[in-house]
Task: inverse folding
């Protein structure tokens, strides 16, 4: 039995996935509870996107975060949701590192306004990214039981031959 | 947006013209009921504009050496004051936030401006400090820049007040208040509406996003 299929590993991955889901849901809530303009100001201060895309992103990204958070917690569409989580966190982390290196004193924009980018926010988001990558890899390694009858028959064969 | 675009002196003059008639040299700001919910606002004397009972309290945390603050002072503030402060929609208070990275000159400039506020001359002094930023930052001639917009009698008063520990304490109070919010960079406009504080640090050209947010708060 490989380590990725061991029970402790599966439990750890499940906990990690739920924690990430809760964080994503909280991040979405923090943004949706405020005006989209506050989040737009946060995105715009990174100075990487034109203003017209900033508005679109500010209006849609919190909903995407909410959807991803829900999917991570309920454990549906694991590969898609974990891949999306890792993708988003990779982009967020990359932008934050860029801003930090450039010495930009701007808000992180992670959980609403008023939190400047610092080594603490980088450490937090870096840890989240690492956790997300583990969950993503686990989602691809541990394929969930298939619902297709043909696949189910194939999966049953080794057990019946024992 | 690049905040250190070329300064526009005409706009600076307009800012000064807008500021001057609304000074509150008596320091009576914050009296009476306030719709923004912050109650009595501890304002530096002569450093506020508008109606203390306005629905939104806008506190500007800035540093006289910061190029972004100079840009905000010269390009964004005149329009903001005309549209929101003069119309009674917002109460505007200037706060000092001398950044450590700029060295002691920032705090000295802040102290001179605060002292000038005590005699109702905050805005002319603030304007002079921003307009001549490049010059005094290099030469270190802060007092000369301040004195240029004051009469000899006012100069004497400001010099006396500058030595008063209460002025340094007021600057420090602004810094401490800002850090608690938290203000993380300058310039930051802190909006208080119905007891909720929101720091705002992004100023696009024309301040479209900020104005949109202000209008949204006013509709609530």
Result:
């Amino acid at each position: 039995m490989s380590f990725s299929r061991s029970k402790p590993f599966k439990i750890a991955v499940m906990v990690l996935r739920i924690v990430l889901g809760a964080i994503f849901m909280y991040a979405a809530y923090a943004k949706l509870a405020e005006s989209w303009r506050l989040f737009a100001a946060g995105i715009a201060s990174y100075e990487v996107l034109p203003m017209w895309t900033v508005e679109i992103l500010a209006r849609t990204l919190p909903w995407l975060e909410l959807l991803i958070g829900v999917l991570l917690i309920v454990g549906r569409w694991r590969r898609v949701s974990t891949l999306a989580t890792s993708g988003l966190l990779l982009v967020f982390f990359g932008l934050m590192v860029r801003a930090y290196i450039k010495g930009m004193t701007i808000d992180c924009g992670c959980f609403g306004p008023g939190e400047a980018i610092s080594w603490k926010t980088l450490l937090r988001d870096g840890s989240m990214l690492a956790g997300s990558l583990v969950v993503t890899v686990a989602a691809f390694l541990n394929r969930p039981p298939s619902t297709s009858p043909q696949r189910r028959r194939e999966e049953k064969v080794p057990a019946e031959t024992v | 947006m690049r905040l250190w675009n070329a300064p526009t002196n005409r706009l600076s003059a307009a800012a000064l013209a807008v500021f001057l008639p609304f000074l509150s040299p008596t320091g009576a700001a914050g009296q009476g009921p306030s719709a923004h919910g912050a109650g009595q606002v501890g304002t530096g004397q002569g450093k506020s504009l508008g109606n203390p009972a306005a629905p939104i309290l806008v506190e500007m945390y800035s540093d006289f050496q910061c190029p972004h603050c100079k840009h905000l002072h010269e390009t964004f503030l005149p329009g903001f004051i005309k549209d929101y402060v003069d119309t009674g929609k917002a109460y505007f208070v200037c706060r000092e936030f001398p950044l450590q990275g700029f060295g002691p000159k920032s705090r000295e400039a802040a102290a001179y401006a605060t002292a000038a506020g005590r005699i109702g001359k905050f805005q002319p002094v603030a304007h002079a400090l921003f307009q001549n930023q490049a010059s005094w930052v290099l030469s270190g001639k802060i007092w000369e820049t301040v004195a240029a917009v004051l009469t000899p009698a006012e100069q004497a008063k400001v010099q006396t007040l500058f030595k008063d520990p209460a002025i340094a304490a007021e600057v420090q109070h602004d810094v401490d208040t800002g850090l608690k919010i938290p203000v993380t960079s300058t310039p930051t406009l802190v909006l208080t509406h119905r007891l909720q504080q929101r720091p705002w640090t992004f100023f696009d050209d024309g301040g479209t996003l900020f104005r949109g947010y202000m209008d949204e708060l006013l509709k609530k």
Summary: The mean pLDDT of chain A is 87. Helices of chain A lie at 7-32, 36-44, 51-74, 78-101, 119-141, 149-161.
